[in-house]
């Protein structure tokens, strides 16, 4: 147990500060899942995954999306188990990365973590929040302040579909803004 988090395959939800600009489309607080390194050898190694989910292009599409798990954090479970790929904690299925600190960023902004609009946008009596960049920043702020990301040696940013696009859209920004100087390897893959 580290800072109240159980180390293992199950990832635990960390809800971001409700007072921040890091909001999902519906205005609910954004969050991420984390599972800390399962061994001392990997304690400074990180894999950060941005979830898939397509885009919304029109306000009507975004309003509909805001009622799903791709637009609100109110539908997310308190834990997540990833059973395949580089984010699984199963060392048989994922011998390379299973021991790493794993961060899974759910996708709830509809624009590959690119929204940068402070004021909510009204649509049909509801407010829509386009704040993906604020979510990205808040996740990195959180892992820096709550966990030992400041001592990261190896960092891999990855994702699939819209999350893969996110990795490429934000790779340089993430490296310049959030990757610690202690990092010797920074990889981006989608």
Give a topology summary.
Blueprint: E1 11-15, E2 31-35, E3 45-50, H1 59-65, E4 79-80, E5 101-105, E6 121-123, E7 126-128, H2 132-146, E8 154-159, H3 162-177, E9 185-188
Parallel strand pairs: 3-5, 3-8, 8-9
Antiparallel strand pairs: 1-2, 1-4, 2-5, 6-7
Name a few traits of the molecule.
20% helix; globular; 9 strands; alpha/beta; 190 residues; two-stranded antiparallel ribbon; seven-stranded mixed sheet
Written overview of the protein:
There is one protein chain. The chain is of the alpha/beta class. 20% of the residues lie in helices and 21% in strands. The chain has 3 helices and 9 strands; from the N terminus they run E-E-E-H-E-E-E-E-H-E-H-E. The chain has helices at 59-65, 132-146, 162-177; strands at 11-15, 31-35, 45-50, 79-80, 101-105, 121-123, 126-128, 154-159, 185-188. The strands form 2 sheets. The chain has a 7-stranded mixed beta sheet with strand order 4-1-2-5-3-8-9, with helices on one face. Helix 3 (162-177) links the parallel strand 8 (154-159) and strand 9. The two termini are 31 Å apart. 43% of the residues are buried.
